[in-house]
Write a sequence for this structure.
C-alpha cells in the first residue's frame, strides 16, 4: 500500500463513534490528532476533503436528548444543533494549523441530480483552490430516507467520484474487511486487499457493531462499488487510534479496495457512454481544434445551438461538417446558451445579468471523440 502523500486528492469519511462519546460529547484530543494528520497531508501537496458524520450524535448531547432511539424529528433537531458544533470544532482544529475550512451540507440527491451536482462540485473545487478543506456532511435536517438508513459511506463515495479523488478512506470503528463479522465469529480472517467486490465479498458484510454508527460493512461495500467503478481506490480502516491517517502509513491494519481504472477516464466514460444528449452545439474550426488539445468549450466558438436542455444536461458538440466531435455536460440552459453563443467570456455577465462561468462546457465534463483526455490548469 503506497503512502498517503503519494495521492493527489483524498476524501476522508469519519464515523460518528470516532468523533463523539455518548457520555462526554466531542472527542477533542482525537480530532486534534486528525487535524495534525490533515495538516501534514496538506503540506505535502495533497488535497483533502472530509465527509463527517457526527452531527446527530453530537447534537443529542448538546440538546440533552435521551440515549434511546430518537424519533425522526428528534434526529433532525439534533442534527441542526450538532452541525453548528461540528463545524466550529473542525474550524478550530484546522485553524490551529493555519488551514481554512468550509462546511457543505449535501444529500445523496445533490450528487445524483445533474444541476445540483454541478453546483456542489463547483463550490467544492473553489474551496480547494483557495486552500480550504471542505467539511461535508449529510444534510440530516432535511433528509428522510438517508437519516434512517445511514448513507454517509455512500455519500462519501459519491463525493469522491464527483471530485475525481484517487482515494477514499473510510475511518470507522472496524479495521477492515473480514471473511465474517469478527465480533460474531472469532475465526474470521482479515482481508488486506480486495481487487473486486464480488457477491462472495458482499456476503461477508454484517450489521454495524456500534450504536452511534448508522452504517455497517454493507454500506461500506456499497461505497466501494461506487468508488471503484469510477476509478477511485478505497481504504477501510479503524479510526479509533490517535492520528489515524498516520497509522495507515505506519502499517496499521487496513483493507485496500483497488479500482480497475483511472478516475478521470472512468468519469468521462460515463459521460460518453451512459447519457443521451439533450441538445447539440455547432462549433467553429477554432473551437474544434481547442477541444482536441484538452481545452474547455468557450461560448465564443459556438455558432449554433439546437434543442432544449437544462444546465447539467448532456449535449453533443458538432464540427462545421456536423460530425459529432465531443459530448459533455453543459453549464447553461438552452435559453442562456443561445444568448451568449459567439460572445467572449468576459461579456457573459453583462449579457446574462449575473456572474457566470467562463466555459460553456468545462474540460472536466467534456469527452472528445477519439482523443485521450488532456488535463490542463486553465479553461
Amino acid at each position: 500500500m503506497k503512502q498517503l502523500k503519494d495521492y493527489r486528492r483524498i476524501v476522508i469519511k469519519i464515523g460518528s463513534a470516532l468523533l463523539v462519546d455518548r457520555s462526554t460529547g466531542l472527542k477533542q484530543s482525537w480530532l486534534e490528532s486528525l487535524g495534525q494528520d490533515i495538516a501534514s497531508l496538506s503540506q505535502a501537496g495533497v488535497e483533502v476533503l472530509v465527509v463527517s458524520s457526527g452531527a446527530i450524535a453530537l447534537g443529542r448531547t448538546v440538546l440533552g436528548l435521551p440515549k434511546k432511539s430518537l424519533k425522526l424529528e428528534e434526529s433532525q433537531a439534533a442534527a441542526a444543533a450538532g452541525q453548528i458544533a461540528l463545524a466550529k470544532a473542525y474550524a478550530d482544529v484546522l485553524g490551529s494549523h493555519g488551514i481554512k475550512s468550509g462546511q457543505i451540507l449535501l444529500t445523496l440527491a445533490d450528487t445524483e441530480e445533474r444541476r445540483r451536482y454541478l453546483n456542489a462540485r463547483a463550490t467544492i473545487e473553489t474551496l480547494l483552490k483557495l486552500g480550504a478543506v471542505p467539511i461535508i456532511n449529510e444534510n440530516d435536517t432535511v433528509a428522510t430516507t438517508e437519516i434512517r438508513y445511514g448513507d454517509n459511506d455512500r455519500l462519501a463515495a459519491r463525493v469522491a467520484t464527483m471530485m475525481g479523488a484517487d482515494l477514499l478512506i473510510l475511518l470507522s470503528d472496524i479495521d477492515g474487511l473480514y471473511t465474517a463479522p469478527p465480533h460474531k465469529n472469532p475465526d474470521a480472517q482479515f482481508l488486506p486487499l480486495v481487487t473486486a467486490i464480488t457477491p462472495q465479498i458482499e456476503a461477508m458484510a454484517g450489521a454495524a457493531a456500534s450504536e452511534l454508527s448508522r452504517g455497517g460493512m454493507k454500506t461500506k461495500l456499497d461505497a466501494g462499488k461506487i468508488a471503484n467503478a469510477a476509478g477511485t481506490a478505497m481504504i477501510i480502516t479503524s479510526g479509533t487510534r490517535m492520528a489515524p491517517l498516520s497509522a495507515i502509513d505506519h502499517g496499521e491494519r487496513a483493507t485496500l479496495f483497488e479500482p480497475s481504472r483511472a478516475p478521470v477516464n472512468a468519469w468521462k466514460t460515463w459521460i460518453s457512454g451512459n447519457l443521451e444528449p439533450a441538445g447539440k452545439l455547432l462549433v467553429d474550426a477554432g473551437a474544434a481544434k481547442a477541444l482536441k488539445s484538452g481545452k474547455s468549450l468557450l461560448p465564443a466558438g459556438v455558432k449554433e445551438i439546437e434543442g432544449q436542455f437544462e444546465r447539467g444536461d448532456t449535449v453533443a458538440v458538432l464540427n462545421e461538417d456536423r460530425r459529432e466531435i465531443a459530448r459533455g455536460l453543459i453549464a447553461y440552459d438552452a435559453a442562456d446558451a443561445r444568448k451568449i453563443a459567439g460572445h467572449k467570456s468576459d461579456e457573459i455577465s453583462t449579457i446574462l445579468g449575473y456572474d457566470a462561468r467562463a466555459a460553456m462546457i468545462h474540460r472536466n465534463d467534456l469527452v472528445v471523440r477519439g482523443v485521450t483526455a488532456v488535463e490542463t490548469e486553465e479553461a
Summary: The chain has a mean pLDDT of 87.
